[in-house]
Specification:
344 residues; Peroxisomal Thiolase, Chain A, domain 1; 2 domains; two-stranded parallel sheet; 23% strand
Length: 344
């Protein structure tokens, strides 16, 4: 019997030994996001956040369908070439995803990792490719400011005052086609660290950064231990949407564990908006925050060789309206994906 390569690594990590590459990608962003610092990098933008829909939920579904089609086209493929799809969103029963991608008729693994869903989708899609179960998979997620406010917080017409620690849900969708051969883009998924549910007892649902930072710390710390690496082994360690509050907590928590990621750290929620002019409080959040920053900016920089190795760590706050109203705390989770430039 042929001996298989050992892929499990350390306590929570594993390697993609077969070769998993970015075959295609697409980013769809709303009006506010297109006016921010990364606006020029997004593939599809709209001045109307309804995206041709009659409701906020339909708008988000339309964003997902546009992102999926654009990513498949970018990979030079058709929907029939995609064997499996992994993705999700913030809405109940993943309705933005299920209604959005239904027309593609691709077998779907619906995922919910809150704002960490892009990392979870990449992880699941890469495992299928690496295991030889699919030549191509599609990974996708999205969020919509108005849809998230409607479900988790207050109706927009209520006009409630937002605390300074609050983050602004990004209106956007990102999609990535993963393939077993390198073609258009010089980006390889090298390995991953699956995160744990971490709960520090924070009950402020308007302070997502504080809820998620401990989970980001736990995953990054375990990743560095499992891979026997140091922060300086990465050009960037990118969290999903901690914002300015969560960033400070993350840096402090990792320093307590003996790691200083100050020079390498980047947070998608901080990068996507201009805090001085766009009045987005502590920064951006939502599944779409890390997804559009990844597909619009990071993957392109890695493919160009401007970034050689990136640890992508989307973060999620695991709450629902039911759990919050029943007085429960807000646990967090984060998954880490190693993205590397693969040379000529």
């Amino acid at each position: 019997m042929q001996q298989q390569e050992e892929k499990a690594l350390g306590k929570q990590s594993f390697l993609f030994g077969r070769g998993v590459y970015v075959g295609g990608m697409a980013s769809v962003a709303g009006k506010l996001e297109s006016e921010g610092p990364l606006g020029a990098y997004f593939d599809i933008t709209s001045g109307d956040d309804m995206f041709g829909g009659k409701t906020w939920e339909e708008a988000e579904s339309n964003m997902q369908l546009s992102a999926a089609k654009a990513a498949i086209d970018d990979a030079g493929l058709k929907a029939d070439d995609i064997r499996y799809m992994a993705g999700g969103d913030l809405l109940g029963q993943l309705i933005a995803t299920t209604f959005g991608v239904e027309k593609l008729a691709i077998p779907l693994m619906g995922l919910y990792g809150a704002c960490s869903t892009m990392g979870e989708a990449l992880l699941a899609g890469a495992v299928l490719v690496d295991g030889g179960y699919a030549k191509h998979t599609l990974t996708i997620t999205s969020s919509h400011f108005a849809g998230a406010e409607k479900q988790f917080r207050f109706p927009l017409a209520y006009g409630n005052q937002r605390p300074m620690a609050a983050t602004w849900t990004v209106t956007g969708s990102g999609a990535v086609v993963l393939s077993d051969e390198r073609k258009k883009y010089r980006v390889r998924l090298y390995g991953a660290t699956m995160g744990r549910v971490i709960d520090y007892g924070v009950k402020d649902s308007m302070n997502m950064g504080a809820c998620m930072a401990p989970a980001a710390c736990d995953t990054i710390y375990q990743h560095l231990k499992d891979f026997s690496r140091k922060p300086e082994d990465y050009d960037r360690i990118v969290t999903g949407d901690l914002g300015v509050v969560g960033k400070e907590i993350l840096i402090a928590l990792l320093q307590e564990k003996g790691y200083d990621i100050t020079k390498q750290h980047m947070d998608c929620g901080i990068e996507i908006y201009d805090a001085s002019t766009q009045k987005t409080d502590a920064g951006g959040s939502g599944c779409g925050c890390s997804a559009v920053t990844l597909t619009g900016y990071l993957l392109k920089k890695i493919s160009e060789g401007a970034l050689k190795r990136v640890l992508f760590v989307p973060t999620g706050a695991l709450l629902s309206t039911v759990s919050f109203n029943e007085g429960n705390s807000v646990p967090g989770i984060a998954h880490a994906i190693v993205l590397e430039h693969c040379g000529d």
